[in-house]
Amino acid sequence: MSKRQPPNEAQPVVQKLRLRYAKSGRMRFASHRDFQRALERAVRRAELPIAFSGGFSPHPRISYANSAPTGAASEAEYVQLGMREEVNAELIPDALTAALPNGFAITQCVIATSGSVADRLDASLWQLELRGVNREQVAVALNQLKVTPDVTVDRVTKSGVKQVEVGSAILESTVTAMESVAGVEACAILQVVVRHDIPAVRPEDVLTALVEYADLDEPASSVFTRLAQGPLTGDPVTVGDPFSEMR
Amino acid sequence: MTAKSLYQELEPLLAQVRKPIQYVGGEVNATVKEWTDAKVRWALLYPDAYEVGSPNQGVQILYEVLNEQPDVLAERCYAVWPDMEALLREKNIPAFTLDSHRSIRDFDVLGVSLATELGYTNLLNTLDLAGIPIRSADRSDSDPLVLVGGHSAFNPEPLAPFIDGAVLGDGEEPTLTISRLIAEWRESGSPEGRLGLLSKLAAAGVVYVPAFYDISYGSQGHIEAIRPNRPGVPWTVSKHTLMDLDEWPYPKKPVVPVAETIHERMSVEIFRGCTRGCRFCQAGMITRPVRERSAGTVANMVDCGLKRTGFDEVGMLSLSSADHSEIGDLAKGLADQYEGTRTSLSLPSTRVDAFNIELADELSRNGRRSGLTFAPEGGSERMRRVINKTVSEDDLIRTVTAAYASGWRHVKLYFMCGLPTETDEDVLQIARLAREVIRTGREVSGRRDIRCTVSIGGFVPKPHTPFQWAGQLPAEQTDRRLQLLRDEIRGDREYGRSIGMRYHDGEPGIVEGLLARGDRRVADVIEQVWRDGGRFDGWSEYFSFDRWSSAAANVWRDEPIDLDWFTTRERSFDEVLPWSHLDSGLDAEWLWQDWQDALAEDEVGDCRWTPCSQCGVCDQMDTHIQVGPADKVWIPTISVGATAPEMA
């Protein structure tokens, strides 16, 4: 008696595109889900031939990897698109950027061959702009943190308090200073290479650790930016380009 | 005026609040015009959170209509949540618009969309946060005009001291007229300041200015008279009616929120107005007559809108969408056009008939058939005659059966509790109906996993409806009846587990009723509630009935009026209602007769296909029904991606 609709057929993926994108300005306040919706709509606006999954509620074939937290800016976020038709990868960054809200920008697009980007995102290079504290204070606190064992901070999430092990995840760190420009007060700039442990250490956790374990004064405000994300290479360690070895 | 962006100051706060994205603007299709190029600047406020306000069609339409004018600009603003409010107050940052983050106080007009009464405390809070005196009498020439519109503006009396004016009816043309009048007034040297401008707007008949009317009260608390208190002010103020909707295809490029909102889709209004005549429905009464957009215009709006937004769902909105005279062709045409594009089409179904199922089947051709919604509104046939929702039980069962038979698994039924003349038995009939729905549904589908959810809202009598004279059911009675119904459904061992029930407590409905049918004396209660911390009254986690009832008791301790007087008391025909001078076009005698017909369980027909029932609107407003394809035939462009002609 009952007629059920046949589910949509899944569309075969003929080309996988790997994108690097940035979020900055006002859009750093977008959550991961906000970006997902914005990207799906941008793909439609740009009329890109994305492939859809099958079933009763088909979804575009888009896979995300390790998104930066809400409020953090980033120059190195990664996403993969499964296309149902081949496209010219060189045209993608401009086409998609034009279709996204200002503040999201697709900065690179490569055609994937094998492996997954997510597997190559071993660590991040984070920059912490700490306003209202100076370089010396941060440098002192950082040295203190390095010699402190078992640096663990509490992060309050919707589902309760989560313990995050910070100390062992920080692999490298440097502190510089930025002069006061155009009304923005002078600040210390801390760059840290953070290994992607589970749970992942966020820049806010690093700051919390500096305040709680090394007596750094709470900055007046702070802006966090992910500068790079990728495999760990070299000695001292740096964060490599996840695309470099997989074209 | 040296308005500047507050974004630099806001930025550090954004990291400290929940869902900061809602405060940053910058969405696709948001418009930021050059501040100094505009002669008249509007801030458009929806007094609820961004997630609720952003999809609002009224604001979206006016935002575009105003911004299309070369010398006018409009920016959007919404209520801020308490976490943001606390930071704004602490840092002394005023309420701001999303588009250029300027203080709301820097604008010429604050245009407020009042879709629901439960946003009134948010309006006061936004004014206060903006540094605008909450009372109109305390405002100076440098404060914006505070104008309200939307359905609740048909009785703006509870807000009278807080607003400078109200616009009744469709806002497209009045906002343009107001902009022009403001520009003219300013060019002629702003004669008589703020008062001069308001007089000009009132004399033009475009804005109702409460301060220009005196209300006198009798010793029993009733209104004795409503009179203009200055020359040149009309005795009654009429609503505006936009004709020829094809000429106004807005929104053409809806703002695409980055934040999650309550409706993640594009909406196209396929017609405005409704003459079904449901007696509880304020929207249907105040938006007459029916004015359709042609199928061609709708198709064009859908096509252009999808291209400009990237949405993957289109909702065809109106008060009873399946009534559009070309709906069959439209549904089939759009389903053909978007076949294979993973674009879903939806029709908020309210009517209960088999045709509706065909439409729903057509629109969901390639998609999921999860849930289908019908609104019988009354549980018993008797109740449905009272409210003029003309559907028989047989029709209802036949329709729902057809839905299950064509693969729908879940049917949602909307009802109201607390309707005039309602008894416990009428409400218990909802359970019987739901059982019957499941019983026949199992039979025709051969499955046991079909479901039926009944959603029940408390009835709130609204101005400009035949039920404007009715006594509202006390909250405890509403709660008791719903409890009886719940027990009845839960106690059913055979079908109860297939029936879900959703309902709300009666208390918020009483406050809604107070604000809907209140007069100017309610204003002090609203202010008291706001001062006591009242915010976001439409949200159960923020609503406090105690706050409202104690404020009312306190403010009216020496008056012959109280909460019950405004809500549960039945009115007589002779009573001067607070909105008697505000003309929705409906003839008072016709409304009263319709109220008497309701009590007699007599039904009235729809003037689109039965003779005119003389409601008075078309004569009074010099308007007429606009339905039918006229001379235009729309042929869908079947090839996907074919470009429809750009809209003007």
Figure out the total of helices of chain B.
21
- Radius of gyration of chain B, in Å, reads 25 Å
Whole-number tally of structural domains of chain A: 2
Q: What is CATH's topology name of the domain at 7-219 in chain B?
A: Rossmann fold
CATH superfamily of the domain at 7-219 in chain B: Cobalamin-binding domain
The SS-based structural class of chain B is: alpha/beta
Number of strands of chain B: 18
The pLDDT mean of chain A sits at 91
Global shape of chain B: globular
Radius of gyration of chain A: 21 Å
Morphology of chain A = elongated
Helix content of chain B: 25-40%
Write the CATH architecture name of the domain at 7-219 in chain B: 3-Layer(aba) Sandwich
Oligomer: heterodimer
Q: Spans of chain A of 5+ residues with little confidence (pLDDT < 50)?
A: none
**Low-pLDDT stretches of chain B:** 637-648
Question: Which features does this protein show?
Answer:
heterodimer; A: 247 residues; alpha+beta; Alpha-Beta Plaits; 2 domains; 8-stranded mixed β-sheet; two-stranded antiparallel sheet; 12 strands; 34% strand; elongated; B: 648 residues; alpha/beta; Rossmann fold; 5-stranded parallel β-sheet; 4-stranded parallel β-sheet; 18 strands; 34% helix
Report what the structure shows:
The complex is a heterodimer of chains A (247) and B (648). Chain A is built from 4 helices and 12 strands. Chain A is α+β, with helices and mostly antiparallel strands and 247 residues long. Chain A has 2 domains: 15-119, Alpha-Beta Plaits; 122-239, Alpha-Beta Plaits. In chain A, helix 1 (32-45) packs across helix 2 (92-99) and helix 3 (135-146) crosses helix 4. The longest helix of chain A is centred in the N-terminal third of the chain and has 14 residues, at 32-45. The radius of gyration of chain A is 21 Å and the shape is elongated. Chain A starts with 14 loop residues before the first strand and ends in an 8-residue tail after the last strand. Chain B has a domain at 7-219: Rossmann fold (3-Layer(aba) Sandwich). Helix content of chain B is 34%, strand content 13%. Chain B has helices at residues 7-14, 50-53, 57-67, 82-91, 120-129, 172-187, 193-203, 282-286, 295-309, 327-337, 354-363, 381-386, 393-405, 424-445, 475-490, 507-517, 523-531, 545-555, 563-567, 588-599, 617-621; strands spanning 40-46, 72-78, 109-113, 145-149, 165-166, 213-217, 223-228, 237-238, 266-269, 271-272, 291-292, 313-317, 344-346, 371-377, 410-417, 451-458, 499-503, 582-583. Chain B is globular. The two termini of chain B are 35 Å apart. Chain A binds chain B through residues 1-5, 8, 25-27, 29-31, 33-34, 37-38, 40-45, 47, 52, 56-58, 60, 70-71, 99-103, 183, 220-222, and chain B through 7-8, 11-12, 14-15, 19-21, 23-28, 256, 258-260, 264, 306-312, 342, 364-370, 404-407, 444-447, 641.
